[in-house]
Write the structure tokens for this entry.
Amino acid sequence: MEIRQKGYQRWQGELTPARFHWLPIARAGIRAVWKKKYAKLVLSLCASSFLVFLAAVYASTKPELKILGELVRMLKSDAELFKTFYSNGFLTFMLIILSVFSGADLVAADLKFKAFPLYFARPLTRVDYLAGKLAVILFYLLAFTLLPGVLLLLFKMLFSGSLAVAPRVLLALAAFPLVESACLAALTLALSSLSANVKFVQIGIFLVYIFSNNLALILKAIFKSDTAMLVSLPANVQQLGSLLFGLRPQYRFPAGLSLLLPLAVTALSLWLLAWRVRRAEAGA
Amino acid sequence: MDEIIRLENIRFRYRDVEAVRGVSLALPAGVFGLLGPNGAGKTTLMKLLLGFLRPASGVGAVMGLPLDDGQRGRRRLVGYMPESDCLLPGMDAVALTAYLGELSGMPRQEAMKRAHDVLYYVGLEESRYRAVETYSTGMKQRLKLAQALVHDPRLLLLDEPTSGMDPAGRKEMLELVRDIAAQGSMSIILSSHLLPDIESTCRQVVIMNRGGIAAQGAIADLKKDRRNVYEIRAVGAAAALYAALGARGWKVEEKDQGLALVTPPGAGGVEELFRVALQAGAQVRHFRPSRTSLEDAFMDVIRGSDGN
């Protein structure tokens, strides 16, 4: 055995306290998602919405092209453009797919393979662990919401030759994807922490999306009230967009509730997540 | 550093079960075995040392850093090889070890270089690029040791390091532990219920039972207590001999293969043994001072602490 020839060798370097302890977790997670089977396909589909809107923005500055007429007509204002981009059904659906793809296994796999003693024997706190895992989902969600939103704005300025943009739109441009991504990321991780079976977690995330909308439609049919749409994830996305971009709400219930609801879901999910990870650490 | 561990009256309970009962312990730098039957509180004590669990009462410090504070600093100085079969899926051994090194505070490049070194050291050089999910139990044990060593800790906590390994793998694992101990730069606490593992790697031992410290000290000292015990094999009227010895206050413990351990009531008394054998009509065919194993000493300690 080699050990007899070489023996244990000490490491001569020095441990340097990291400024962001969560960063290696985030980096490893982002890399792991990128290496997954079908990653390129899923990410390309997520980007397709941006490409369509980019074409529409270009077409809106070149009326002679006469392409994407209906979409171009919808994008009368910046607020309308970005609200439609962020809350369009296809992007919302793809963000759910992306959450499932990038986040369902983040905590569930650690539970399944009992990885917690390996993490928590390091100079990591539960907050570092959770921040690292959340950063993975946030990275991908923001890469297909905030980043294309900013790019759309830049391209719009470039195509139209005007730098004019309302401050509220600028604020909403950042706030909408941040609220939406934070809520989806926290909810995904919370569901991921509930089971060591990744399949159950994936189904759970889909159920939240599909079941919430179907339940809302059933309740709306029974009570004949738009307030029932408050339980629908896609409806709340629409309503939140209207609220932040200052547009007329699509549903007749206070739009402010569609801001409070994701914030409450985020807070509840983070609490659940922290509780589950605390239990996992104690049992490590 | 004078002491690697100092605990004063540490208590911890899992709901109705008091898993650690007022443990006080002071260990200087060195290699220690943590012995105890299943459920003695060894793993819970390790979790308390690492900060996975918070003691209900009591104070303590690991490597001079208090249990209730300085968790990051403490964990930077400690390497932990857990008992459970844990791994990070989707990685090969190099990526996993380097990643955990990085989480310990090693620069990225250094962590990668060191990962290769420690994997080579534990004997995983051939399979370091294989996905860890495909590893056998023995390979996983080696990998767990590698990840505990990657940041060159000052204190190494090994929880059942030979668990599930075949005899050859177990021997190699114990050789690794002995080699690390021989370097003298790292203190080791090896928790096991396998007495030969402890005996072959440690000179000092802490015995736990029912959540408390039942005994602590040098293994040689623990064995010393049983020097006045003799191992005999009698033929003929062996039963009459044992009865006669018992009547004279000797302690007689019959073992397998016709052997018996006999302890005279006071010091000496060997002549009396042969005299009684002659009277009883028994022949003593085998006689020697009992070679006390750690197991004997351990069982004595456990019985003693159970009786208290």
